[in-house]
């Protein structure tokens, strides 16, 4: 009976050691998740490449997923009603946060990029595209007005000459 009691105590110690090891592992993982909440699965955050780079290649998503991500960000920029005529650095932080949250809900894999550089790059690109497109449209419309006004002036001058 003494031998059975000793074996039970040994087994109890082993179980306690296993529990302690599991608790330490859990604490370590929790600490890592706090430092790096987006890489809780043990993966490292992806740094932004230096120099010139192709954004689609740097992000590493399949082409269809990349296009879906860009469409999603475009829609979120529109929904947020962010002032895309302003420089990105002066953009409303709450509206940017709404864009980032929306992206992370629909595309959780985007959390793996350090300082959210991938979402930022796509958002900036979208805002710049909208700004440039608007500037071209305004320039084209003002050019059309000048041409149209010029033609009207010529026609009126011809009528005056006839009299």
What would you say this structure looks like, in words?
The chain is mostly helical and 163 residues long. The chain folds into 2 domains: 38 residues; 104 residues, no CATH class. It starts with a helix and ends with a helix. The C terminus is likely disordered.
Mean pLDDT equals 77
Number of domains: 2
Secondary-structure-based class equals mainly alpha
Please give the share of residues in helix.
Answer: over 70%
Uncertain runs are 33-40, 152-163
The coarse overall form would be rod-shaped
| Separation of the first and last Cα atoms | 132 Å
How would you sum up the major sheet?
Answer: none
Content of β-strand: under 5%
**Alpha carbon gyration radius:** 31 Å
Strand tally, please? 0
How many helices in DSSP terms?
5
Order of helices and strands: HHHHH
């Amino acid at each position: 009976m003494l031998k059975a009691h000793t074996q039970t105590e040994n087994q109890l110690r082993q179980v306690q050691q296993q529990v302690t090891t599991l608790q330490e592992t859990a604490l370590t993982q929790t600490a890592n998740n706090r430092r790096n909440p987006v890489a809780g699965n043990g993966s490292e955050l992806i740094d932004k490449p230096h120099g010139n780079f192709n954004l689609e290649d740097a992000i590493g998503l399949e082409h269809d997923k990349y296009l879906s991500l860009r469409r999603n960000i475009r829609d979120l920029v529109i929904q947020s009603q962010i002032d895309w005529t302003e420089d990105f650095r002066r953009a409303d932080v709450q509206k940017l946060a709404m864009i980032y949250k929306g992206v992370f809900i629909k595309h959780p894999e985007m959390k793996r990029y350090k300082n959210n550089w991938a979402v930022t790059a796509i958002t900036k690109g979208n805002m710049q595209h909208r700004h440039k497109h608007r500037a071209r449209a305004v320039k084209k419309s003002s050019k059309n007005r000048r041409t149209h006004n010029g033609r009207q002036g010529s026609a009126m001058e011809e009528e005056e000459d006839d009299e």
